Amino acid sequence: MVPSVDRRSVIRLFSRLRTPDGQANPLPYYTELRRMGDIVPAPWGGHLVTSFGLCDHVLRNRSWLVPDSGWRARQGEATRWMASSSQEMASTLPGLNPPHHTRARRSMGSMFGRNSMEDIKNSVERNTEELLDRLAERLKDGEADFSSLVSEELPVLTIGEWLGLPTADYELLRSLTRDQVFAQELLPSASQLAKSDAATRNLREYFIALVRERRRAPGDDPISAWIRTWDELEPHQDAADEAVYRLALFVVLAALETTSNLLSTMVWLIAEHPRQRGWLRAYPEYIPGAVEEVLRYDSPTHVVSRIAGEDTTLAGVPVEKDQMVHLMVGAANHDPAHHADPGLFDVRRKATHLSFSGGIHYCLGAALARLEATTLLTGVLRRFPALRCGTPDWAPRVAFRRLMTLPVVES
Questions:
Q1: Residue 278 in contact with residue 347, Cβ under 8 Å?
Q2: Which of the four pLDDT bands, split at 50, 70 and 90, describes residue 1?
């Protein structure tokens, strides 16, 4: 039976999530949402899933699908799902269901496997030290913005070097990915979708040109390797180039926004808990576990959407085929039925979380994000043991967190 929930109370809750108070600390609002039930009717249609167990079940169960291009087309021309940016996202890996997802995923090979990560690790360590050198210089004059100086730089340096992108293009790619992500938000406005559409067009032009350039002059880089792979899979060159473009677009979109937010959130949380910071400096072998607790406590992604592939029930609630459920990952990671004292940030916790999704859509870049976060936190603890943070500035989002500025000073 569908829980009886006041529609207006849910709308008010999501409105408050977008306020500065809601962005600074969404946890009280998630507690309020969980009190409404494990599965709550969404005022705009479909359902909100708040419990860890149910979210985990949906992510791992192959009968639940992602909103692919076919589903989006069935929603009608006047809906947000037919925006050009939304349609473009449906052609990338996170918007594909089997067998299309299986084919595209296999074509990428072991993208961030053990051998690849060994090569990338040296790059991450070198870039981290150089960025922290720059931070140290800026701190001599007083306050500095950790987000712009470090968190936004490390992911684009890492993925840019790996793909062999010109360094002069990094700022453009950062700017375009910030605007493009609106297409993936929970309830984007018309103006936000317009920004996303424009950014997506520019990203398409950029990566199509890049693929053509690598075809003319292939090298020892992932894009050139994907071209060789897709030339064997597709009889037509244009179709092969289109497939490679989608892979490159996906990798950059997935690597920049979420990782930069993870890095800033991590430094902010550690600085806000000086006793735990001191403990980590004494026992650095626990730094990887601290990164997992950051991911649990404030995931870069707070909402993941899935579609019922058939008529089903979820926790006794009927869900019709094609109906959407929004998995409130940010709330589920604080489910008291799964975590003891979930509102407590504790770097010694054996943290489990859904922040990298699950099932066949488990984040391909999870190992890379963990490497960047672990390397950066190790460097910050070693070089800036008394770093203090001012008040962060958050973007008014729900699904994708963005810490825009993080002022820091060195005590």
A1: no
A2: very low
Distances (CA, A) of 22 to 26, 149, 394: 5, 26, 10
Q: Which residue has the tokens 């037919």?
A: 82
Estimate the crossing angle of helix 237-272 against helix 170-180, to 10 degrees.
90
Residue matched to tokens 């699908």: 65
SS3 212: helix
H-helix segments, 152-189? 153-163, 170-180
Q: Round to whole Å and give the CA distance between 307 and 97.
A: 11
Residue 246 pLDDT more than 90?
Answer: yes
Q: How far apart are CA 303 and CA 305, in angstroms?
A: 7
252 within 8 A of 159, measured Cβ to Cβ: yes
**With contact defined as beta carbons under 8 Å apart, do 332 and 50 qualify?**
yes
Q: Which pLDDT tens digit goes with each residue over 129-172? A: 999 999 999 999 999 999 999 999 999 999 999 999 999 999 99
Which residue pairs from 96-101 have beta carbons closer than 8 angstroms and sit at least 24 positions apart in sequence? 96/66, 96/68, 97/65, 97/66, 97/68, 98/62, 98/360, 100/68, 101/360, 101/361
Report how far residue 346's alpha carbon sits from residue 44's, in angstroms, rounded to the nearest whole number: 36
Of 288, 248, 275, the closest CA to residue 376 belongs to 288
Select from 295, 289, 290, 325 the least CA-distant residue to 307: 325
How open is the CA angle 282-367-229, to the nearest 5 degrees? 160
Terminal C-alpha separation, the chain: 56
Q: How far apart are CA 409 and CA 138, in angstroms?
A: 10
Among the listed residues 311, 273, 255, the one whose alpha carbon sits nearest the alpha carbon of residue 120: 255
Taking the CA of residue 383 as centre, how many other CA atoms within 13 Å lie in the half-sphere pointing to its CB? 19
The predicted-structure confidence for 23-65, as pLDDT tens digits, reads as follows 999 999 999 999 999 999 999 999 999 999 999 999 999 999 9
**Residue found by looking up tokens 């069935």 in the block:** 74
**The whole model's pTM is what?**
0.94
Q: How many residues make up the chain in this entry?
A: 411
The dihedral formed by the CA atoms of 238, 244, 247 and 248, expressed in degrees to the nearest 10? -110
